[in-house]
Amino acid sequence: MTGFPAGSRARIALAVTAAAGLTLVVSGCGGSSGSSKSADGTVTITVNDMPAKTDPVNRKIFLDDVAAFEKLNPKIKVTPHEGQMDPQTFSTKLAGGQLENAFYVYYTDPAGLIAKHQAADITPYLSKFPAVNQVKPELRKVFQDDKGHTYGLPEGNYSMGLVYNRALFKQAGLDPDRPPTTWDEVRADAKKIAALGKGYVGYGDYSKSNTGGWHFTAEMYSRGGDVAKQQSDGTWKADFDNATGRAVLQQLHDMRWTDGSMGQRQLLEWADLLQMMGAGKLGMYLATSDNIPTIAAQYKGDPKDYGLGPIPGGKGTLAGGGGFMFNPKDTPEQIKAAMAWITFKYENPDRIELGAQRAAQAKQPVGLPEPNIWTGAAAQAKTAADTKYANVPVANYAPFQKTIAGIPLVLEPPKAQQIYAVLDTVMAKVLTDKNADAGSLLSNASKQVDSLLAAQ
Question: CATH number, domain at 25?
Answer without folding.
Answer: 3.40.190.10
